[in-house]
Amino acid sequence: MNRNKNKLILFLGIIFSTFLFNTRVFAADTLQEVQTPHGFKAFLTIIPLIVIIVLLVKRVDMLIAGFIGGVLAMIIGGISLVQANDFLLQSLPSMLTITVPIINSALAMAVFAAGSYTSSLTLVKRGIKGKVEYLAAFIVILQAAATYMSGIGGGSAMVIAPLAFAAVGAIPELVAGMAIAAAVSFTTSPASLETGIVSKLSNVSVADYVAQMRVFWLVFVAIAVIIAIYGTKKRKVLFKEEENEEFKNMSNKELLVNTIPAIFLLSAVIIGPLINKLIGFSLVTPLVYTVITVALIFICTKMTLNQSVNAMVDGSNYILVRLFSVGIFLAFINIINQTGAFVTIVSVAKSAPAALVVPTAVLAGFLIGVPAGAYVGSILTLVLPVVTSLGFSPVALGFVAMGVGLGSQMRFQLDILLV
């Protein structure tokens, strides 16, 4: 124990000395244009990125990984505490300004709390008349819809996966379908942290990114549904009749009414922009569908008005906490960027055939995403700067994000399956 304490004290001492040295020498410096490093210096600038990736793969907390990488970058690049502080004060506010995803995520979590998703699954179970493959298809669609509305892959899976496995069992193809549906949904959702990161790093608005990726989201969800149906039919799974205790005594009409908040919110998020375009002015806005969704939760579910409002406010906790964390992590990444690390990678990537760069980035994101698990936002802040610097389209960025998301969801769904 004393040996570990001595190591910790030594490590903190080195960091403190480094900060003090940098403050004395570079305190008067201002942020400058990033210069392309050459030779051995170029190799050194990449080391902090490699260290962060290794630590994330080993499931070290992203802020610890980012801090260690940031300190290394400060040593390598001679970056002062003043500059590092500037990066922090710039990155945090920028992440916390993605208001539409915050609102959408909060509303979706309130709909979760009201039980709209569970009641819809219960209703479908009663209506499929023993066709288990239909239930498997609906489970994947429900996973996609819930994730798309909330922007939270893990959160929706924690609710829906146990219900799915209780109904039809842990079918490998169903698990794969749910993983694909969740991955493509939260990485292209108008309510997700990942969409906010893509928007900030690429200077593309959330609405434009979501609109361009929607057709690919639908295509991959359809593929996920087909995989789930195929696996369920092939394995000849028997239907399980158990229903959720809270909803089994409700009539079909009551269940249908209970699902209305979820149906409305999904419609507002997906069809709202089209309605606004058709009528020529913005009618379906975040303010409008926020008020209506909260009202519907109060009218259609067992929640009181106070509980409905509180559920929405509490629902914002998830995304706000993660935006705060990623904002801090992004400050460390910006420190690394100041050393010229991303410029070095881009200069190498430019020599490769353009057709290979995006597939390579997607594959790299997937391979890192599997062991890194929940740190999708962190991985994106490492991968996307390179892709954006190469001038690729928002769709290309979306595919990279989906690759990272799929890797993380494969890990997450397997964890649920093993539990």
TrEMBL record:
Keywords linked to the UniProt accession: Membrane, Transmembrane, Transmembrane helix
Transmembrane segments: 37-56, 63-82, 102-123, 135-168, 214-232, 255-275, 287-305, 317-336, 356-376, 382-406
Protein name in the entry: Citrate transporter
